[in-house]
Inverse folding.
């Protein structure tokens, strides 16, 4: 069994909890997940099965989308509703006020990782230090928010929903907290659903209960997506029989002898002589070679 199983992660499960649960359901140990989700979040969690685990760290599409509930007028130690509220504010905030600051949180921006996060400082996870009451200096990191839309907002209770598309390493609760700071009243996240990740959407996902039922009915293979779905946006190269053997052995190929290489494009999805997906490759034009990226074949 090899490929990708998209899970609609339930609330109160860590990403590792999901993998552990699936090891029992699938009766397979070789699993990995594509992108950590906080325990309180739900939504798209791609799980790589079998040989597909080799692709966990090379997904070419690292964009993710979320729907995040928020409440203004509060600050908590975890930047969300599940933490300890530290300060509150009665300041009135209109929809126009929020929309006025949203542009400041789109594009490439700097974000300070929250203390309750898996970021490591001096070999220690920030959330471990936070639970000990220790706060350490962190360095801001560049993130990219491609879209930030205020879907709804009720000024009477200062609660609303944001739709966010962003790159890897973005903390949604920190965006909300920073927006609250900019408005002068504070803000916390109240819910989080990941609606897409790496090209997969909620429509691709199954609950743990559905996966369990599919196993009981001996139709698990129906739920497994092919690994090439991860790389479908890359241009394709089809190798000949001899080239396929060389590629599988990690041998660099003569770029001029590989059909389908395009000017100006460096990364490719590689298919073997039998038409099956076998990995990725990079065009090294300076040396006239096609170098193996990740060999999955």
């Amino acid at each position: 069994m090899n490929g990708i199983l998209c899970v609609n992660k339930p609330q109160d499960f860590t990403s590792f909890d999901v993998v552990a649960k699936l090891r029992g359901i699938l009766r397979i140990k070789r699993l990995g997940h594509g992108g950590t989700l906080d325990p309180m979040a739900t939504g798209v969690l791609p799980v790589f099965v079998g040989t597909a685990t080799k692709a966990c760290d090379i997904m070419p599409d690292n964009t993710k989308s979320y729907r995040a509930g928020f409440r203004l007028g509060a600050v908590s130690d975890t930047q969300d509703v599940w933490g300890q509220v530290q300060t509150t504010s009665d300041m009135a905030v209109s929809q126009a006020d929020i929309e006025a600051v949203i542009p400041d949180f789109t594009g490439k921006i700097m974000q300070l990782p929250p203390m309750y996060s898996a970021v490591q400082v001096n070999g220690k996870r920030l959330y471990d230090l936070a639970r000990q009451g220790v706060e350490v200096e962190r360095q801001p990191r560049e993130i990219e928010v491609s879209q930030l839309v205020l879907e709804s907002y009720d000024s009477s209770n200062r609660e609303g929903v944001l739709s966010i598309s962003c790159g890897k390493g973005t903390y949604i609760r920190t965006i909300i907290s920073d927006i609250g700071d900019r408005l002068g009243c504070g803000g916390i996240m109240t819910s989080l659903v990941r609606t897409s990740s790496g090209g997969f959407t909620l429509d691709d996902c199954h609950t743990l209960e559905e996966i369990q039922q599919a196993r009981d009915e001996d139709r698990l293979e129906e739920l497994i997506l092919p690994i090439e779905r991860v790389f479908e946006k890359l241009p394709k190269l089809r190798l000949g029989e001899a080239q396929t053997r060389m590629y599988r052995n990690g041998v660099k190929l003569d770029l001029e002898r590989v059909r389908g290489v395009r000017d100006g494009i460096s990364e490719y999805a590689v298919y073997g002589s039998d038409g099956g997906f076998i990995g990725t490759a990079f065009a090294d034009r300076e040396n006239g070679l096609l170098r193996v990226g990740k060999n999955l074949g």
Notes: The mean pLDDT is 90. The domain at 234-295 is CATH 2.30.130.10 (Archaeosine Trna-guanine Transglycosylase; Chain: A, domain 4). The first strand starts at residue 3 and ends at 9. The chain has three domains: 3-60+199-230, 64-197, 234-295.
